[in-house]
Design a protein that fits this description.
It contains seven helices and no strands. It is mainly α and 146 residues long. α2 packs antiparallel against α3, α3 packs antiparallel against α4 and α6 packs antiparallel against α7.
């Protein structure tokens, strides 16, 4: 994975910076970091995933606090929630997971898919915690009624 990510980074750096970073078919450095964040979350590299999640959130918010990329922010919060859950912080994980699900603008199918990573950690490590069950119920409801 690291080799593939490095090849992607080298390729991206060889291209001119995109004129319109809002074009979904263009990969800018922040979007690449977003994808790398997903990879590190998937393989359990929580320190790297969390660092990239923080960068993604920072880069997706304007100087005045307006969110330019709410889905990136939501998925970054899921990543931070997964890292928190793996570190034993149930309260922090649930808070971040709910923030991700409760955002105003979202693609529920995509968010539900990414949130499965958090759901899996909560089910594995906190199966008897009512807070985890409540979050898992919320996620199931979203999947049933997007």
């Amino acid at each position: 994975m690291d080799t593939a990510l490095e090849r992607g980074r080298v390729l991206l750096e060889s291209l001119p910076y995109p004129e319109n970073i809002n074009n979904h078919f263009v990969v800018d450095p922040l979007k690449f970091d977003f994808y790398v964040m997903d990879c590190y979350r998937k393989v359990g590299e929580d320190r790297l995933a969390s660092a990239l999640a923080d960068e993604v959130i920072h880069g997706a918010v304007d100087f005045n606090g307006a969110e330019r990329a709410p889905m990136r922010i939501a998925e970054a919060k899921v990543t931070l929630g997964v890292a928190a859950a793996r570190a034993g912080d149930l309260e922090g994980a649930i808070l971040l997971g709910r923030q991700a699900l409760n955002g105003e603008r979202k693609s529920l199918p995509s968010l539900a898919m990414v949130s499965q990573d958090l759901a899996g950690v909560l089910a594995d490590r906190f199966s008897n915690a009512p807070e985890a069950a409540s979050y898992l119920d919320q996620l199931q409801e979203i999947k049933r009624n997007p």
